[in-house]
Amino acid sequence: MQFGLSESQEFLKDSARKFFVGECPSAEMRRLMETETAYDAALWSKLTDQGYTGIIYAEEYDGVGLGKVELMLLMEEAGRALLPGPFFSTVVLAGSVLDAVGSPAHKKKFLTPICRGEARATVAILETSASWNLRDVQLTAAHGKLTGEKLFVSDAGVADFILVVARNGVFIVDAKAKGLKISPMLGMDLTRKLYAVEFKDTPAEHLGPTTNLPRTFDIASAALAAELVGGMQRTLDLTVEYAKTRKQFGKPIGMFQAVQHQCADMYLETESSRSAVYYAGWALEESAPDASTAVSIAKMYASDAARTVGNRGIQIHGGMGFTWENDLHLYYRRAKASENAFGDATFHRERIASLVIDAPGVTERSA
Fold first, then answer.
1. How far apart are CA 246 and CA 313, in angstroms?
2. Are 184 and 159 in contact (CB under 8 A)?
3. d(CA 306, CA 235)
4. Is a pLDDT exceeding 70 seen at residue 139?
5. Residue 248: what pLDDT?
6. What's the CATH architecture for 122-208?
7. How far apart, in whole angstroms, are the C-alpha atoms of residue 294 and residue 286?
C-alpha cells in the first residue's frame, strides 16, 4: 500500500497552507473571534473561490469531487490556522448529512448552494443528555412540525437552514421559520460559536431516515481529528520557536534536555495523530471494512494527544503561555472543544470495543 501523498495532494496541502497564512493570519483570526458570529462574508467568498466549500461533493452539485484524504489535508491546514466561522458546520457536517441522507432533489436544492458558497448551514444533534449516541435522541417530528430544544449547535447564528436530527428522521428547518428561537451559548472555543435552538411547532421538511448518519458522523469525526493535527503542529512550531529564543542562565532553553524531551514528545504525538487521520481518510474514501474503527482510533488518539501537546506547549512557554496575547491558549480551547465533539476518547474506545466484538466471525473464533 502507498502511504505517501500524491503530487496533487501535496499541492492541495501546500496551497491551502499558503491561502490560510495570507487570508487568515493570527490578527484576522482574533478579529473574527471577537465578533458575535466569527463569520466574515469576504473570507467565505475567498474560501468558495478556492473550491473549498465543495471539496468532496459531486460536480453535478457544483462541487469539486475530491476525496476524503483531500478533505483531511484541507482540515489539517484549517486547524493550523484556527479558521474561525462556520466552515466545519456547513461544509463538513451539514454537507455530509445532505449528501448521505438527501434525495437528488434535496441535494440540488440545499447542497448546491453550499458548494457555491451561497448558503451556510449546521446540524442540530445534541439534547439535554449531551449524548452523541443517536439512540438517545428524544426530539420527534409530528405532522411536519418540531417542538423541543437542541443544544450546543455550532454556528446556528449564521445558518440559512438547520438540519435537525430527530428520532423519526432528519429534517430541514429554515432559519427564519416560525417558532424557531436561536440563543447564544457560552462555549470553550471562541472561534466556533455555539447556540441553543428551540422549536415550537416549527415547520420542518423531512430529508430522510437516520440510517446513514453514522457514516456522516465518521466523516465529521475524522475531519475534527485532522483539525486537531493542524492545531498540534502549530502549537509545536510555536513552542520550538520559543525554546530557541527564550534564554535562561545565558542559554536558549531549547538546549536543556528536559525541554528537548518535551518537544520530542509533542512531535511524536503530532505525527502519530497525523498518520491515524490520513489512514482514516483513506479508509472512508475506499469504504474499507475497518473504516469506522480507523475513524474512532484517529479521533480517540488525536483527542488525547491534542490535550497533551497543548499542556506541554504551555508548560514550556511558562507564564507566557497563559497570556491573552499568546495564541497557544486559543489552540488549547479548540482542542478541548473538539475533544468532546462527536465523542471523546472514552466514547470511541467503547465504540472500538463494540466494533471488534460485534465483527463477523469473532464469536466463532472465540469459541
1. 14
2. no
3. 9
4. yes
5. 85
6. Beta Barrel (2.40)
7. 12
Residue 80: all three cell numbers together: 493550523
Measured distance CA(292)–CA(313) in Å, rounded: 31
- CB within 8 Å of 206: residues ≥ 6 apart: 141, 144, 169, 170, 171
Can you tell me the distance from the alpha carbon of 104 to that of 213, in angstroms, rounded to the nearest whole number? 17
Q: Which CATH number is 213-360 given?
A: 1.20.140.10
pLDDT digits (tens, 9 = 90+) for 113-138: 999 999 999 999 999 999 999 999 99
Distance CA 196, CA 173 (A): 15
CATH 3.40.50.1980 fits 7-119, yes or no: no
Q: Model confidence at 2, in pLDDT bands (50, 70, 90)?
A: low
- Comma-separated ranges of CATH 2.40.110.10 domains in the chain: 122-208
Length of the chain, in residues: 367
pLDDT of residue 367: 35
Which of 226-235, 251-260, 340-349 has the weakest average pLDDT?
A: 251-260
Q: What is the location of CATH 1.20.140.10 in the chain?
A: 213-360
